[in-house]
Write a structure and sequence with these properties.
Helices cover 19% and strands 35% of the residues. The protein has 292 residues and is α+β, with helices and mostly antiparallel strands.
Length: 292
Amino acid sequence: MRLRGVLWAVTMAAVSAAATAKDLDLKNPEDNLKAFIKMRASLDGKDTVTWWTGQVFAAVPDERPKLLFGFEGMNVARMEKDEDGNWRMLSREYAVYKDPKTGAILETWSNPWTQSDVTVFHVQNDPVNHVMGGAPKEGQPPRLLPLKQHGNDVILGLDVPLAYPNPISPEKFPLHSTGAMYVGSEHFGFYARMNELADPKVQSAPISIAWFREAPWLPWMEMGDRPGLLVYSGYGKKLMGGIDELPSDFKAYIEKNAPEYLTAPKNWVEPNATSWTVYKAKVLDQKQPETP
């Protein structure tokens, strides 16, 4: 009888989830956006913390990829509606580079190609903001994120190819610049459950994430235009309990060095920050231009 009761409960839960899922149409622009907001942050405007970890490899022509760093990062985001009814995500993010063997957060790094010891500059991007939603331009189809449903799983994959002028000029800072253009890409995977996205009582749905990135040498590595690039391989999740669920050593490091990154921004500002623009403002702009 106990087994029969368990099977009955499981069956009814599955039926309930299927019925609820029908109430959320991922091909409907409003439902599509609502599902993404619940995945990425929270409909109620509360701070949402996403955490990730992984490794960074160097890819140099004709060499086996070399493991350089471990890394660990977090983003804290808050959703709000603007005066036009669009959703705005206000967020900032902090990440650290680690010794791949010990896991210790690095303050200096011995560059194996240049034989120089350099100061590590951790990721401290503020802001990282986005606008979502809004009516499409006249004659354009509705905006839909490529959310894919498979049973009770919802998967969102985003590929972002990038190419824009390098904010760190190779003429002024040849040691820290890889060239006139920044060329790279980022690749995201978000994984959620349809029954949680469709449940009107759920304001913020649990997700798992995957993140991959290819990018030029970081400016603090002092690699100049040496051939090669960095490959990031990461994974993580939304921390449903917020900041307190960050790994204790990582949280303590942020509390000591950059406590403002533990809460989402209160006001919308532009433009967004990157590791390159922040490094330029905080380090290079305080120095004299370099001599090639």
